[in-house]
Structures
1.
Amino acid sequence: MNILKTLTLAAFSLMLSQGVWAQWETDASPNGNMRFSWIHGSLSAKSNKDLRIQVHRYNEHTYILRQNPAVHWEAPFMYLLFGDESAVLLDAGATSEPEYFPLRQMVDSVIDRWKTANRVSELTLFVIPLGQDSSQTSALEQFRNRKNTRIADDADTRAALFGSSWPDSGTLSLGGRHLEVIPTPGIDPEAISLFDTWSKILLTGNTFYPGRLVIRDHPSYLESLEKLQRIASQSGIASIWGGRIEMSAEPGLDYMLRSNYRPNERSLQLESTDLKDALDIVRLINDKQDIQIHDDFIVMNGVGRGARAYGWPVYIPEMFRKNRTR
Amino acid sequence: MLNMTNLNLSIPTEGAAKLDLIIDLGQSGLVTPEFYWSSAQTTDGSEQELMLHEALSKIEEGLILKVNGRRQMLALTDLNLEAISLDAIINPLTPQMARISYELQSVKLSTEDIVELQLASSIDVPWPCLVRVDAFANLPASRLLTEETRSSGAILLGLPGQREESDFLLALTLQFQSASPALSWLAVGFQHVVPDGADHIAFILGLFFLSSRLTTLIGQVTLFTVAHSITLTAAIFGWVSAPSHLIEILIAASIIYVAVDNLYEEQSQRWRALAVLGFGLLHGLGFASALGSLELPQDTTLSALLFFNLGVEVGQLAVLVMAFACVGWFRQQPFYKRRIADPASVTIAGVGLYWFTKRLAIYLF
Amino acid sequence: MLKLKHSIAAISVASGLLMVDLAFSLGPSRALVFPESATAPGSFPDQWIHGSKSAMDNEDPAVQVHRYNDHTYILRENKAINYEGAFMYVFFGNEKALLIDQGSTSSPALFPLRKTVDKIVSDWESEFKQSNTHLIVANSHLHGDHYAAWNQFVDRPNTTMVGLTHEEVMNYWGFSNYPNQRIEFDLGGREFVITGTPGHESSEIAFYDKWTDLLYTGDMFYRGRLYLQDWDAWSASIRRLQSLANDYPVSHFVNNHIEMTNTPTIDYPIGTTWQPNEPPMQMTRAMLDEAVNAASKIDQAGIYKFDDFLIYNEVPWAYTTDP
């Protein structure tokens, strides 16, 4: 009996030390450490002393970056995912000047640290904006002259990277770690979302996030959400990470556009229940002009980004309803 | 700053002092918006108080009212919760304000007391907080509390030198205004003579020093009054107009004329009355240009004018009464003309000459 | 005929008074004159500080101090500190100074307005051999985002705080018939005419300086979005301003904000902290006339676009016209 136990233990440890269990193939989602608040600007943006780019290590192969709202009010999120052979940077921030927004420098240092920790010498970097908004593409220029880098900001590169079924669907392999690529137009005709089959995290960019979802093409958007919903039901989603936060911690209350200071933001992550709610709301709207406020996001159709819900059929506060006298 | 907090301390002459805190509770962090909404919907006052008990005790702890350096007890007397919808409460752009009223029961305040209002660091409200102290019948005192400056500093109630002399008259005017808008024009008319109308005073005194007979004086002043009322009305309604610089120069000239006339006419003549009439018309135009800076109310112009005229008459009367009280006793004395009336007339002539020269110089250069 | 002694006496009185008058006007305490017959010239900067692309990296001062002329200063709060980028004014007279509005940020560490104004006053005193200048701290209107730094002046010696309540404002300026009244205000020999202009806010006043012929209209008329709280009051006020401009020569209409871009009808949305293409702050009589015209035509809620300003009639403050 003793010998058997020892042998089993020995075999076990041998297997562990050689990493027989390929780290990318696991049924359970890997653990990760999520922040509940991010750097969020200050009362006087001019006096802000926070980091320009906050880097948060979710787990050893997944990093979340956030641009300081005192540098640019859009304060977008960017994601750095690592695989055995390549890494991918999703979205490239809202500011192009490296002295204000040193994205390249930051990404390089994270990559170098990862390479050292994981004893990898060469790593290709894919820089993939999830849409064409200036808050996602401004710092792409910083990566143009980088070695071993491919920037997917045009149709051809996308087609080259995402496989043969593109543009209907696509895959992106980082070596061991696979990402499904889903075209999700509706807000942005060039928008894409990625699903990380390893961590089961859905990265939705500006298609779905805790903020104002300003639909430009209702049928396409409905279809996009349905696609995402199918993934949720088939594969199970651990979490949904969007491209920015515009909601405050107060259910249904968003920050004004151009706020450099958001002291009470909602958390970044959304759940599959939120996705289902969004789908229901989008169906309800049925391509009418409307603003629907959900606790965690606001769906707007056929109106400008700065439109407000009051003065709207949804609810009109008394102060905007006084009788006009002439 | 749409939902700035307000702290109003009102101290009446009779009764207890009241302190009102007007605060956007839903945004303050003291209660959640949902809880504020359900409290607001409760119709029973004492139940509201119970529901908001925690927030209210935090406020009572952090809201400090000091009288002469000592903190005072505040008794909650009323709770008024505004809330048109939960959405409106949540949205900082449509503030729903709660009014929390306290009474200061144990202390009777007087104009000698010093109050200070503070919001302790244990409590945060939507900043800034405007403090307003209405003590007795005085003008309010205002202070601003911010997250960094949480104390109003010492505020002396009923500061005697709080307002300057001119403010007293204005305050008087304001009091009249509230009593009856028309009456305020009476006060304004009075002010146009006393103390603002030095040249009119000089002219009236000029008339005074001529005649030793009261009836003549009264007659002349009345004539003067009627004349200036006519031109004043005419000018205000735009029927007549004249350049104000010229009018001022001519008024100065009229003063000289009257004063010189005093020196050389032993008694009034008929055409003197005509002169007074003429000068009255002139002075009326002078009043009009001064009145023009005050915009008369559209709908009650006539009554405002009437009361203004009345005010001017009262002012003139006051001047005459004063003059009488000073030198009127000596009217019948032999030395009156040489020792009092003549020197006075010379002085008036001199002053008139001074004005004439100065105004002419200004006009020419 | 006139008796000689009477004439001599009268003339002596007159001369005596004239001498006294002359002495006073030439004395040191009345050194500065502000003649109203001609317009005292002044200048505007080619461009005001206007925030920056990255607010965090803004290198402009917290407050821009612009010398319009010897005795008139225009200040602007840095947009990277607060997006309002509010203008404030300092007018000087003999031994008196008038500060109108105190910006949108209260903390002196972030927005050292007191220090800035103190320096302006002491520099002016040395330059013009003045002393003991009494500062009047006043407001164009009582919105908190224009008096945030009011507290910084509360402990300043030789200062009058006009006050933040309607009653104090009325009392200080002497309004007995607000708003339909013109108050003559003397700032140490420099004459102002003040009139009531409610509509954007219920205690708003406009200041006309007879020396520079500047008409300062605060928040009720500027190059940007005119948010009107009370349409009827605003219409009456804009007409009142027009009537004032008919009675007095106006060199420039100055005010509290620039929100327009230099493309007609296009504004920088609320919250913008970088405005590289601003038009000048000052406005013209033609623009005022256009506003008066608008006042008679508009009778519905909505956004009305004019080349140099926008009327936001009953439109929620946070609403933007972003596409």
2.
Amino acid sequence: MDTSENELVERLKHKATAQDAFRELVSIHKERLYWHIRNMVKNHDDTDDILQNTFIKIFKNIRNFKGESRLFSWMYRIATNEAITFINKKARKLQITSEDLQERLISNLQSDVYFDGNDIELKLQRAIASLPAKQQQVFNMKYFEELKYREMAEILETSEGALKASYHIAAKKIEEFLKTN
Amino acid sequence: MKTNKLPHKSKPGFKVPEDYFEALEQNLMDSLFSDSKEAFVLNEKISSGFKTPQRYFENFNVELPEKEATGVISLIDRRTLYYVAGIAAVLISLFYGLFNENSAKASWDNLELSAIENYIEEGYMDMPESEITNYLYEDGYVIEDADFRKVNSRAVVDYLDEHVEDPTYIFDY
């Protein structure tokens, strides 16, 4: 954890400085966390809800952050967990599997006012949805969010080698999907 | 001295089509990445197609709850405990009613925890939290909030580690 991040965490932990520090934290990280969640749940309104919950959870639990990883990775983990929990709950509520939910989310994109993708972009989303959950996550983080393997390894608590292999397999599957569908 | 080694020949009479090796790499690249005339290739960046409402990020604001967080580390969602205990109480009563004639004694030991979890997971629990707390009994005593504070944190973590299948419910802070 670098000095400025350390300082921000300390300010978040103290009542007198917490509010300003929190505003700063939101300002720095809102966009990256938004896109991370959006790539998982696809829909803007759901993403907005999850992002709100993520920041509230971060604020409430900042005292438990021990600085063993970077703040950024810790926040990403919370956002990831929030998004996964949301997807699982939604699938359960609709009494369908997570895979079926993925298909439904993609089908909804065509009528989504906050999706202006062309056929190719829609097809790419379909291709991503056809991957196993872990590969989807790795692909989104590398391809769209352009995270470094080192950062991904810290967030997902996996080795860089495993992530590289996972991304390679995911990319191959997507290429195959795009060519054959 | 005569050896059994075969004489080494770098070109044992085989031939390849003209420009074969020059074309090989290009053919492989084409077959993997650009079979289609369309831009369906990952070496050409395709955007996600997602967009946000106008000025969404400028206007983004997090509404923090009124009550500020305290320093207490919540290792387990208390509501889950309420649910599990409440449902267990209901199921015990149910089992007792059904199997009383066979003198089968219902207890925590012969109650399938997975059945309770499943019951809650499937969303059959249609009862406000305030009402559930009315069913919180253990050995005839109402479980007080204070009792939860006596729970050994290590034991709770061990329990979750052993019984909860979906790790997304456990935050690794």
